[in-house]
Specification:
Blueprint lengths: L2 E6 L4 H10 L10 E6 L10 H18 L3 E6 L7 H7 L4 E3 H10 L5 E5 L2 H14 L5 E6 L10 H17 L5 E4 L8 H8 L3 E2 L1 H14 L12
Parallel strand pairs: 1-2, 1-3, 3-4, 5-6, 5-7, 7-8
């Protein structure tokens, strides 16, 4: 069965496991298959621009080895490392969770807010929103100051995400929230319950788009694989 490969570009298996659990409702007996993979060559967490740049080559190599069995690829990091390079390399549809998460949020509300893990991530994300042309719809992005590995501390992470979500809603006017790290997946239900507004988990958003494209017979984008 053709498979959608969801590649976690960091080396933390716990993050891949939470992603796998989050996308379970999107699996079906009639396919496509969905498989979550960990990039062993990646850092424990992708938190800086250097981390982003450093995973592109190993990510491309891993995807190339999977190309013949792939229906689509999802890059499960909110910095979308290697997104455009993989689109050039692959003949399959390629989705980045940041791009998909933001596009999904724009269909659910007028102004979106983003919860980041660290302040250093925000500058990088703002550059990306500018490239996407969506800064006019961005309410704000706030950081919880918890690194990727420590997201497993559920009490701390939950509390800080709720505080950031409330600030984005009440002080900045966000009417939909995007979770700015794949490692946050398990906190979406409680965050949505606490805030009372839609919360987008970006890996779910990206895999949803990938499943739709594959089931409808989607191919790579027009700016994808080169001859």
């Amino acid at each position: 069965m053709p498979t959608i490969y969801v590649i976690n570009p960091n080396s933390t298996e716990a993050v891949t496991e939470t992603i796998d659990q989050a996308i379970e409702p999107l699996r079906s007996s009639d396919g496509p298959g969905i498989e979550c993979l960990t990039l062993a060559e990646g850092p424990p967490g992708i938190q800086t621009q250097r981390d982003v740049d450093g995973v592109v080559e190993p990510l491309l190599r891993r995807a190339a080895a999977l190309e013949n069995h792939a229906a689509a690829f999802v890059i499960a990091c909110f910095s979308d490392p290697g997104l455009h390079s993989l689109r050039e390399q692959s003949a399959r549809p390629v989705f980045g969770i940041a791009e998909c998460g933001v596009l999904t949020a724009l269909s659910m509300g007028h102004r979106f807010g983003v919860i980041a893990i660290l302040p250093v991530s925000i500058r990088r994300h703002l550059r990306y929103y500018g490239a996407m042309g969506v800064t006019g719809r961005l309410a704000a992005e706030l950081a919880i100051n918890v690194n990727v590995v420590d997201l497993a501390n559920q009490d701390l992470t939950r509390s800080r995400m709720i505080d950031c979500g409330r600030a984005l809603r009440d002080a900045h006017g966000a009417d939909v929230i995007v979770m700015g790290c794949a490692g946050m997946t398990k906190y979406r239900p409680v965050l949505e319950d606490e805030l009372g507004i839609p919360v987008v988990e970006p890996t779910q958003a990206a895999v949803t788009m990938a499943v739709g494209r594959v089931r409808l017979g989607g191919t790579a984008c027009s700016f994808g694989a080169v001859e």
